[in-house]
UniProtKB/TrEMBL annotation:
This is Xaa-Pro dipeptidyl-peptidase. SUPFAM superfamilies: alpha/beta-Hydrolases, Galactose-binding domain-like. The keyword NADP does not apply. The lineage of its organism: Bacteria, Bacillati, Actinomycetota, Actinomycetes, Streptosporangiales. It holds the Pfam family PepX_C. Residues 1-25 form the signal peptide.
Length: 639
């Protein structure tokens, strides 16, 4: 959840000639402030128009009382809200809604070592913190773009960070109360004070609030909405968490967010602890470390307090869910299970699935991103009937950079197809078949920390003592996997590692998006300029990499949690059990001429705890299978 590295893994792009474009007049302002404000909202073409001056905006800082006392000092925590709004809210009685980005990152972040992950290694040390770039998380366009259209924009320091009091608790009910309190203050239900202690009310506020943000900043809107707070009308959670268990755990085991091996709830809380007098939070964070359980990885009380999926029925806000198909930091399951729960709860919703990693598509689909987010907030914060709720619910970006719209996701017509893991003529590699073959026992020995998944899935046409491989033949037509695959495995384990890892792999040399982005050199101007901020950005493109394979999706199971993620049941060495678990959701098309593969491992070097090498995993082919959610024509593509 800590911010991603800027441009990590990006391929070099030839420098383009600097181009400058302005957004179409129907959806963007002139870059300078308007000559004169009409002192009232202007709507044309179904959207608010940029008639207010960003340069003349009023700023305000408010410290808001919450209902939480996370630092246990006997005083309710306060969160700090910094607001920018049209001057007409002071001079002409204008009342406006607010678009807010709540964040624990506004005051920066601390360097905190991660937990060691090499089990049983006396020399194992805490892992160093991955380098981060906070600037990549904050696109910085809200004031230039939304304020001139009649919105207040606001930054909220989450509890325990920046100008707020209390202690950061990595997603529990105290942090939820902090985000909720800001909405309550904007609706006259919570007390607030100026920095000098003067009581202050949001007399300029309509009470309608929207939230937007990426990563932790996208999680806090989910948390606020799940509280059921009145007045929160619309949110845009980008790569947001819906259950912290599915961020730091998976399948009953300790599993790291991609790029942050060894991080956990306590590490993140220490990293964002930027309030004044941080030492008051030591006991709170010690308690988080003591209860997060890095031994078993079981789902328990500490995780139930950080799980919002079951609270979707409380949500009153319209939710525009956004997630990268190449995001292995906040994995896609977090958005998909939120999307599904919102559907069951009847919540108005939209979904964007893009080809980026842990990122916001603002900079490579600028015009459409601004159009849809503006219309989303206009519709639900101003009540403008612009048709956004009648458009296709889903936007999906394909690997070639083209976009598709759909009524729902998975796309209509998707069907689950069981594909069996069968032994090959020489045993390994095996095959993937629509019909189950004769059962055979096949084994591998876990390599522990000595080999990565990328190393193990290479040379798929040969047997490898540290993994099992199962492959289709060469596909004669495209195969679209669209949803959540699941593994059913009959297997035994004999050794210390409890992990079963499955990788779904596209084999075939091709150029594919990595999830990173590169600047194109094209300058795009979207909003009013002020000194030091020209209201422009540089358009990005997806970074591509040519490689012989790509991991489509992956998953992990702690074999001791075969019955429940909440309970550890010991396994008898060498005894076969039935295991079933889901892979991470995906939307991926395997091209004609490629092959689809399933790779079975135990330790996944960059994600799981790493036990000593030597665990022997034996599977039973024929009865073992992967269930694939395939779009129309998928079964036929498999033969």
């Amino acid at each position: 959840m800590r911010p991603p590295r800027a441009g990590a893994g990006a391929a070099a792009l030839a420098a383009a000639a600097l181009l400058v474009t302005a957004l179409p007049a129907a959806s963007a302002s002139a870059r300078s402030a308007p000559v004169a404000s009409p002192h009232r909202l202007t709507v044309a073409g179904g959207e608010t128009q940029p008639v207010f001056s960003r340069a003349d905006a009023v700023t305000q800082t408010v410290n808001i009382e919450t209902t939480a006392d996370s630092d246990h000092d006997g005083v309710r925590d306060r969160v700090q809200l910094r607001i920018m709004r049209p001057k007409e809210t002071d001079t002409a009685g204008l009342k406006v809604p607010t678009i807010m980005e709540p964040s624990p990152y506004w005051a920066g972040i601390n360097d905190v070592p991660n937990h060691p992950v090499d089990i049983g290694d006396a020399r194992a040390r805490a892992l160093t913190t991955t380098q981060r770039n906070l600037a990549e998380m904050f696109p910085g366009y809200y004031d230039n773009y939304f304020l001139p259209r009649g919105y207040a924009v606001a930054d909220l320091d989450s509890i325990g960070t920046g100008g707020s009091t209390g202690c950061p608790t990595s997603g529990d009910r105290s942090e939820q109360a902090g985000a909720k309190a800001a909405v309550d203050w904007l609706n006259g239900r919570a007390r607030g004070w100026a920095p000098d202690g003067t009581p202050v009310a949001a007399t300029w506020s309509t009470g309608n609030v929207g939230m937007i943000g990426q990563s932790y900043d996208g999680t806090l809107p989910n948390m606020a909405a799940a509280s059921g707070v009145e007045g929160l009308k619309a949110i845009v959670p980008i790569a947001g968490i819906s259950s912290w268990y599915d961020y730091y755990r998976a399948g009953g085991g300790v599993v790291a967010p991609g790029g942050y091996q060894g991080e956990d709830l306590d590490v993140l809380a220490k990293a964002v602890l930027t309030r004044k007098d941080p030492e008051v939070c030591q006991k709170v964070i010690d308690q988080i470390e003591a209860t997060q359980d890095r031994e078993t990885g079981d789902y328990g009380k500490v995780w139930a307090e950080r799980d919002y999926v079951g609270q979707a029925r409380n949500v009153h806000a319209a939710v525009m869910v956004v997630h990268g198909l190449n995001d292995w930091n906040v994995k896609l399951k977090n958005s998909v299970q939120w999307w599904d729960a919102l559907k069951k709860a009847g919540v108005p919703r939209k979904l964007w699935l893009h080809q980026g990693n842990h990122s916001t598509p603002f900079r490579w689909r600028v015009e459409e991103w601004l159009r849809q987010t503006l219309h989303w907030f206009d519709r639900y914060l101003y009540g403008i009937r612009n048709g956004i709720d009648k458009e296709p619910r889903v936007d999906i970006e394909h690997a070639d950079g083209t976009w598709e719209t759909a009524k729902d996701w998975p796309v209509p017509g998707t069907r689950t197809v069981p594909v069996h893991l069968d032994a090959g003529q020489a045993g390994q590699p095996g095959t993937l078949d629509l019909r189950a073959g004769a059962g055979a026992a096949q084994s591998f020995t876990d390599a522990g920390k000595t080999r990565t998944a990328e190393d193990l899935l290479a040379n798929e046409g040969r047997a490898d003592p540290n993994r099992l491989a199962y492959l289709t033949g060469t596909l004669d037509r495209p195969l679209r996997i669209d949803g959540t695959p699941s593994m059913s495995l009959r297997a035994s384990l004999d050794g210390r590692s409890p992990y079963l890892t499955a990788l779904l792999v596209d084999y075939g040399t091709d150029s594919r998006p990595t999830g990173a982005r590169v600047d194109t050199g094209q300058k795009v101007c979207y909003g009013q300029s002020v000194p030091g901020d020209e209201g422009c950005t540089t358009r990005q493109a997806l970074a591509m990499q040519t490689a012989p394979y790509k991991i489509i999706t992956r998953s992990w199971l702690d074999a001791r949690n075969r019955k429940s993620f909440s309970r550890t049941d010991p396994i008898a060495p060498g005894r076969a059990y039935a295991f079933r678990w889901d892979l991470q959701p995906t939307d991926y098309t395997v091209k004609a001429g490629h092959r689809l593969g399933v790779i079975l491992l135990s330790t996944d070097h960059d994600y799981t705890l790493r036990y000593p090498a030597g665990t022997v995993v034996t599977t039973r082919t024929g009865v073992s299978r992967i269930d694939l959610p395939l779009a129309r024509g998928g079964r036929e593509a498999l033969g």
